[in-house]
């Protein structure tokens, strides 16, 4: 049993990871995959992993495959010492922090995992190839860590959906667990990218979570009321350059029709200053509707036209 205060083993190479992994003999191993610059959202994933698994591996890897040529790979915050403090506090066993040449020893991999059509909409439309890059590295890190469960944030709803699809479609022997979005007190979803925001950007950025909340508050009235309520918040903030605001089916990501009742994803993306931000809220549409923390296991399977 790991003590809460022991410093995690840091593995930089495949051999170091294999050696540290082999030492975790008894019990399940869970993995939390990150790009570093850890915050309370990441800590929450680690806590949930620790609560259910005997051992936790955190990966810290800025995956070049998922960044486009004009994206923020080079300016992405790197805070390894602080990350280690959080991992130590949360009782992590192993931190796997490889460089790209360790993960991709042959350079750009010729073979990638394709996210398919679900990877081409919403974030995938704004960031072509992004989800192929994500799934490829998630697949590799699942193999390298040998974890039997993996924890991902609802904050990245489309990523979570695609990872669930990959695990099911390609028979990965791993249990995918989703963790609710952790927010600042004022509602802003925590993100490593929030450090890019100036004080005034940060004020502007609040409109994203406020729009989602307004939409969720209108959930009982149906899809068009939800969309209208959310949009009415966003139009009051012209400095937020909205890329999309959608209310979509939780597994097909298609716009839900007006008759839809059941679980749906209210998602927003936009640019504030120089920073692209995303946020979302799972909602129940229809009588008794409102915000949900995460989707139920059968989300989207029970929708039915209104009688
Ligand atoms: P990232 O380091 O941004 O790639 O995120 C690593 C993991 O942490 C992903 O599964 C994210 O969905 C999750 N995550 C990031 N921000 C939050 C948050 N505010 N609340 C919950 N999970 C989060």
Notes on the protein architecture:
- Helix content is 33%, strand content 20%.
- The protein contains nine helices and ten strands.
- The strands form two sheets. The protein has a six-stranded parallel beta sheet, with helices on both faces. A four-stranded antiparallel beta sheet has the order 7-8-9-10, with helices on one face.
- α6 packs across α7 and α8 packs antiparallel against α9.
- The longest helix has 19 residues.
- Adenosine monophosphate binds next to α2 and β5.
Question: What attributes does this structure have?
Answer:
alpha/beta, single chain, binds adenosine monophosphate, 33% helix, 307 residues, Pantoate--beta-alanine Ligase, Chain: A,domain 2, 6-stranded parallel sheet, 4-stranded antiparallel sheet, 9 helices, Rossmann fold
Quickly give the structural class.
Answer: alpha/beta
Ligands in the model, by name, code or SMILES, are: adenosine monophosphate
Whole-number count of domains: 2
- The sequence of SSEs as H and E is EHEHEHEHHHEHEHHEEEE
The span between the termini is 55 Å
Helical residue percent band: 25-40%
Gyration radius, rounded: 20 Å
The number of helices is: 9
Q: What's the short version?
A:
The chain has 9 helices and 10 strands. It has helices at 14-22, 40-52, 80-89, 100-103, 123-126, 130-145, 157-169, 199-217, 223-234, and strands at residues 9-11, 29-34, 55-60, 94-96, 149-153, 175-179, 240-248, 262-272, 275-285, 290-291. Strand 9 (275-285) and strand 10 form a beta hairpin.
């Amino acid at each position: 049993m790991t003590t809460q205060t022991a410093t995690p083993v840091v593995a930089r190479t495949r051999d170091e990871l294999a050696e540290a992994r082999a030492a975790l003999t008894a019990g399940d191993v869970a993995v939390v995959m990150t790009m570093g610059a850890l915050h309370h959202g990441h800590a929450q994933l680690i806590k949930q992993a620790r609560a259910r698994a005997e051992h936790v591996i955190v990966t810290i890897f800025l995956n070049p495959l998922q960044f486009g040529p004009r994206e923020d790979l080079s300016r992405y915050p790197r805070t390894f010492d602080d990350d280690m403090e959080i991992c130590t506090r949360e009782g992590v066993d192993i931190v796997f922090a490889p460089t790209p040449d360790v993960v991709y020893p042959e350079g750009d991999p010729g073979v990638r995992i394709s996210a398919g059509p679900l990877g081409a909409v919403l974030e995938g439309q704004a960031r072509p190839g992004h989800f192929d890059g994500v799934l490829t590295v998630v697949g590799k890190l699942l193999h390298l860590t040998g974890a039997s469960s993996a924890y991902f944030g609802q904050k990245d709803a489309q990523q979570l959906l695609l990872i669930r699809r990959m695990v099911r479609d390609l028979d990965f022997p791993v249990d995918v667990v989703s963790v609710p979005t952790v927010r600042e007190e004022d509602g802003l979803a925590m993100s490593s990218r929030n450090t890019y925001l100036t004080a005034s950007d940060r004020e502007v950025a609040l409109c994203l979570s406020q729009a989602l909340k307004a939409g969720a508050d209108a959930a009982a009235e149906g899809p068009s009321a939800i969309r209208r309520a959310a949009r009415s918040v966003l139009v009051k903030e012209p400095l937020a350059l909205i890329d999309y605001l959608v209310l979509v089916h939780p597994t097909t990501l298609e716009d839900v029709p007006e008759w839809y009742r059941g679980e749906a994803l209210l998602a927003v993306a936009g640019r504030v200053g120089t920073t692209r931000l995303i946020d979302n809220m799972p909602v129940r549409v229809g009588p008794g509707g409102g915000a949900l923390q995460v989707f139920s296991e059968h989300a989207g399977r029970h929708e039915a036209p209104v009688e």
